[in-house]
Structures are given as C-alpha cells and as structure tokens.
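Why do we care about 3D structure at all? Because function follows from shape, and shape follows, mostly, from sequence. That is the central idea of this module. The next example makes it concrete: a single protein chain, its amino acid sequence, and then its structure expressed as tokens.
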Amino acid sequence: MSLLYRAAALGFGGAAATTGTYAGVYYMKRERPSVAEHLKSSGYKLIFFIENSDNVKLQWKEEFKSDRENIKLLIGFTGSSDENGGKALEKWCASRLNEEYSENLEGLEGVKNYCVLRTIDSQLSRNKKGILADNDSDKWNKTYDKRKATTTLSPRSQIGLSGEWGQRNDSKNADLPLIKDWCKTQSQSYFLAYQKTYTNVYNWCTEDGASVTQ
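And the structure:
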C-alpha cells in the first residue's frame, strides 16, 4: 500500500498525502475511529495537515523545541538535536494517531498536546510569554514606542495600520485600540512556524516587544 493511500485513506491531505510525510500510518478496518479521526471530528487540526514537506518538517522541529524536556520523556528521545527530536516526535505521533480511539488510551493527552496545531497564544505560553493585558497601559506604551522607533522592522502596514510612521506622529491613542484588537485576534490563530505571524505578535503585543530592536 502506497504512502499516498495510507494518508488518503485516513482522510489526510496536504503534505501527508503528497510527500509521504505521514510515513508508517496504515489504513485498517476498525469498529471504532482512529485517534486521528476522532481528533479531526472534535475540531483539532493535525500538524500533518500542513501543505509543503519543508513546512511540516519545520513545524515538527519547533513543536519539539516548544516543550523539549517533557516531549523527550513522553516519546523516549535521548538525543540533543532539535531536528532529530522533531523527526522522532513526528514518528511517535504517526503511530499514536493510527491507533483506535479510546478515552483511556495511553499517551492521548500527549497526542492532543504535541501532534496538533496550537494557537499563537499557546506558543507564547510555552515560551513563558503572553499578550499584554488591556489595562497594562505603561507596558503597551513602551512596546508601541519601540515599534515606532524601529520603522524598518515594524512598518504600520505589518498589522494593518494605515499610513507611515513619519506621517502619524500623534496617533498613539487611535492606534492602540486597533493594535489590541489585532493582538487578540492573531493570538488565537494557529502557530505556523513557517509564517511570521508569531514574531509579529511577539513584537507588537508582549512586554518583551519593548526590547526588540532587530
């Protein structure tokens, strides 16, 4: 049975079906759905859904890095390379996702934590960061001022603000509510390692953004 069929038979498209990323996953007739099928029907989106094999590879690497020590314990990985750790995590997820679903399945929480796409807010949390609270006025001001001072790194258009920084010298009061709305929306979007959205959220929406200069 081809890798393409193995992926397609379980309802996976994208890189899983087109590049053989979902190696080792076999279609079997079952009375109960697989873990993958259950998660899909429950609203989860698997990392394997990402298009482009290079993007999938990068996602697994970043997923491994995001909680390295706990993932090592979970999957029994003892190496030091994040790239190899990502490959090991991918293999572990492929195996678990193919099993029949049961609420008592060993490793199920690990699958939910490390085999699916998470939000940018979740990625920030794993990095011990977070979106500024609405009432953190002083911190919002500091981050805003740093973005205004780094015009090449942080053009206003990067987050949908109109005009150029030099044309908007007194726009902070008008800008900040728009920035906060943007931050709330983008923090709930998927963390995709091949996109720049996470970096933009980090720069514009966190306390640490006030220290980012390049």
